[in-house]
Amino acid sequence: MSQPPFASSALDEEIARAELYGLLARLWIAAPDAALLDALGVAVTDAPSPGGFLEAPWRDLVGAARGMTPATAHAEYEALFGGVGRPSVLLYGSHYLSGFLNDKPLAALRADLARYGLARDESLGETEDHIACLCEVMRYLIAGDDAAIANLKEQQDFFARHLQPWAATMCDAVVQQPQARLYASLARFTQAFIEVEAQGFDMMDGR
């Protein structure tokens, strides 16, 4: 986590994509601990070629992490996504796709995960349509060893069905929360990364 999300070759780019999805999964599932905050705090923020689309939101995220302690990060996470009753912001795809939790979009997602041979991690306490779980699946589809599953076509299809249609709306909801600081920066970076991914997949189709 000492490297920024910028790559200089096709292989580096795929590794960077997988690592970024892994980082997003980690930050959206729980507040960062001291080790992760420290790693973010010393991350390089300058792209090889200045002006890259991810450079500014990445620098903003790193800067926000440098101003956080584990306690303040945890308090922010709980204020936004935890607590008693309905959270300020929901992190589940079904809510944004259908207006209800545990609805048809979750069933469709579970069918795709079963086809990949993936199952819910019961220890997380979250349904599979949580943004962190979806990012982890994308990481698997990029970095996995099974070429029948871990390939660009599966990445594109999964992204288009389960992540792209709602992730930006969720991020907007986070940014609008007055108590969001670290997670406002994370939401803006997530939006930018999703946009880069969408453009990349569009290029595959020659759009």
From TrEMBL:
SUPFAM superfamilies: TorD-like. It comes from the Bacteria. Keywords: Chaperone. InterPro entries: DMSO/NO3_reduct_chaperone, TorD-like_sf, TorD/DmsD_chaperones. The keyword Chaperone applies. This is Molecular chaperone TorD family protein.
